[in-house]
Amino acid sequence: MPAPAPPVDAPTLEYYLAASARSPVALRLVLGHLLRTLRKAAGIEAEAAGRSIRGSEAKISRMERALVTCKHDDVIDLLTLYGVTDTPVRAHFAEMVRISRQPGWWQRFDGVLPDWCGKLIGLQEAASTIRTYEVQLVPGLLQTPRYTEALVRLAYPMAPQQEVDDRVELRKLRQTVLARPDPPHLWAVLDEAVLRRPMGGEQVMREQLQHLIEIAQLGHVTVQIAPFNRPGCIAAGFPITHLRFDLPALPDIVYLEQLRDAEYLDRPEETQHYRSVLDGLAQSALSPHDSLDLLEYTLC
Length: 300
Description:
By secondary structure, this protein is α/β, with parallel strands linked by helices.
């Protein structure tokens, strides 16, 4: 018989539910983390856990890594196996499963949203800090609608107007995360090339630069420009997004977008490496104050 698992108290689960309820993606990650913690505390191998729910070691791995949505019966059976018998605790786990299986608001844009991008939106909804470095384009959370439309038309020249409108609307809805009462802190480092590339033409860029100036003065947004004349600003030649969460069950996550795919890294040695790269870029870039001056000078 496995050793009894340490108790998982109901107040902790209530906290997780309240803190991550806005993001089914985040709650799936929390649920997977808790199931892995309970399994290891109970001294049960993943293979044995998989057999107990008529599955395999691979299924347990996918559940614990939040690569799939968990089923109610599977989670309840695992809790029994791990020695979790407290009725309120089991009820909280059942509620976590229910919420984690709900579709995110962004799923109504499935026709224009790549499969790998929905996870990013869900993680941004739950993040306490979003750090991003962009080489060529204004970060999506800081784009104006007309800048986004110009970008969409460049990337999808044959797209019908409805698709263009849907992509612009999706971007606008993603940005509401910065306008809610408890927004994440967004820290963006932009290569100077972003300011020099006239996406959409002069008028669109002027509007975009004005928006950057305005939003950079918000208390929860930091914008830095990495100028051409500072060698330390070429430490990374590709976009990086680093997400940090207040939830102790969630590790830092790094998002690396490619042409037709994306990577999500959560191993501490990997995320710390990219965090160090972002730290170096922030130190080499212009200060937020000097960056604001450059934005205003560029606008003139």
